[in-house]
Structure formats: C-alpha cells, structure tokens
Amino acid sequence: MDIATIIGLFGGAMAIVLGVMTGPSGIAGIGNIIDIPSVFVTVGGSYFSLWLCAPMSDILQLFKILGRTFKLFDFGEAAIVENMVSLSEKARREGILALEEGLDDLDDPFLKEGLRLMVDGSDGNVIRAILESEMAQTEARHMKYINLVTQWAGFGPGFGMMGTVIGLIGMLQNLEDKSSLGPNMATALITTLYGAWVANWLFGPMAQKLIGQNASEMNAKEMVIEGILSIQGGDNPRVLAQKLLTFLDPKTRKTVEANVLKD
Predict the structure, then answer these.
(1) DSSP string for residues in 151-180
(2) CA pair distance 67, 231, nearest whole angstrom
(3) CA angle, 215 as apex, 213 and 217 as ends, to 5°?
(4) Distances, alpha carbon 231 to alpha carbons 118, 184, 225, 247, in Å
(5) DSSP 95-145
(6) Phi and psi for 253 in degrees, rounded to 5?
(7) Rounded distance, CA 118 to CA 79, Å?
(8) For the purposes of burial, counting CB atoms within 10 Å of the CB of 55, is it exposed (0-12), middle (13-18) or buried (19 or more)?
(9) Residue 224: pLDDT above 90?
C-alpha cells in the first residue's frame, strides 16, 4: 500500500475542510461546499466525456489503473545489478551457454527473453532492437491509460464552468427574488470548485504518480538491456556493475556498490 496516496487524499480533504471551518462561517460552512448535483455535472460529466475519447474496453480498465496509485511497486533495480553481476561471473567461468540453466525459473519475462536471445547467439544489435521494441510497446500501453487520466483531469474544470453557467442561468431566471441571489450564486460557483478539485487534487496528481511508476519500470528494463549486452560483449563483471550502478539513486547505489564491488 502506498501510504503517500492515502495521505495525499485525506490530507487534501482535511486541508479543505479545515480551511472552511476556520473561515467566517465556521462549521456551518461545510454544508455550503457540498452539492450533489455539482458532483454529477463535474465528476460524472467529465468521466463520460472519456467515453468519447477511447474504446469502452479501455474506459472499463481505468479504475483498475487508478488503483495502481495506491500500490507500491518495486522494479528491483538493486537486485538487477546483483543478478547481472552474478550472471556475468558465471558466463566468464562457464561460457554464455551455461546461462541457459535455470532460465525457465526466472520470474522476469523481460530478463528471460533477453537472456534467451543471448544464449541463442543473437547479434547484440538484434537483442537491443527486440528488447527496446518490447519496452516501447509496454510504455505505449502505460501512456494510453495515463493520457486518459490526464484528460479526465483536463475535462474537470471545463465541466465545472458548465455547471456554473447552468447555475447562473437558473439564478437569472429568478432575479425578482433578491434574497435568493447570494445563495444561488454560491451554489453556481460550487461546480467550478469541484472542477478544480478534479484537476488539482485527484486525477492530475494521480496521473503524475502513474508517470513516475512507468519511468521506474522503464529504467529497470533499460538496466536489463545494458546488462545483457555487457555480458554478451564479455565485459568484466566490475565494469558491468559500474555501468548499471549509474541507473540507481545515490542512496541505493552506495548500498549496492558495497556488495557488488567488494574485493
């Protein structure tokens, strides 16, 4: 569970509630920012606009994709360095063909595919081309859903303005009732508020988290490619380790470096 997402959701909600409660209207003001019809217009309207943007199969997967923002993903960058160094040492001792042993037991399909190509004697350029194509297709699938979430965030303010206009129309039709102008104006503006929430509190930040997850996964896959090509090229395990350590953040790099570069 990614606690940061939980903190962001509840923290943002509490910041809004506390901001209202500490204002001039105090606790009574909470009810002033709750309006179910405005939710229908902003959240519902912006969501169903997505159905005009993508196939139904993609839209039905969208909430599952949003669920990824509540999960922590470890793409094993540190383990990749250690595993690649181990495979490099084995290849230097016993030859590349020895890496075929235990290949079927690997959990990472991308690593398995790359090692299989190497063991089969494929050219390095061919291995890179195939694996980079696999990376590109994986990233394209990720970005398809990330773009949908980003579009949802972008549609929210627009539907917020639509709701405000709808509310203003209703208000202008009852101008003879002067006492209702203030409350009606406040209700009309709530949809603008909800549209801002959709964009800046919910789906905009969620899209950014998904982008970060995608970047981490692509970084791990790039490490696999560099490691496999380094093994195929006969690089010294220490040289391979130095190449892969550049992909890690300073803190993780220091820890892994102590393990793989020890004398």
Answers:
(1) HHHHHHHHHHHHHHHHHHHHHHTTTT-GGG
(2) 38
(3) 70
(4) 9, 70, 10, 17
(5) -GGGGGTTGGG-S-HHHHHHHHHHHTT--HHHHHHHHHHHHHHHHHHHHHH
(6) -60, -45
(7) 20
(8) exposed
(9) yes
Q: Which amino acid is at 136?
A: A
Q: What is the pLDDT of residues 62-77, one digit of tens each?
A: 999 999 999 998 898 8
Q: What is the pLDDT of residues 25-59, one digit of tens each?
A: 666 567 778 888 888 999 999 999 999 999 999 99
Give the CA distances from residue 23 to residues 20, 137, 242, in Å, rounded to whole numbers and listed in that order.
Answer: 5, 51, 57
**What is the pTM (predicted TM-score) of this model?**
0.88
Please give the Cα distance from 41 to 198 (Å, whole number): 12
Give 3-state DSSP helix, strand, coil % of the chain, rounded to 5. Answer: 85, 0, 15
* Residue from 82, 110, 59 nearest 240 by CA: 82
Structure tokens that stand for 259 in this block:
């393990």
Query: What's the rounded Cα separation, in Å, for the pair 60 and 82?
Result: 39
The Cα 204–Cα 174 span in angstroms is 37
Q: Tokens at residue 239, please? A: 């040289």
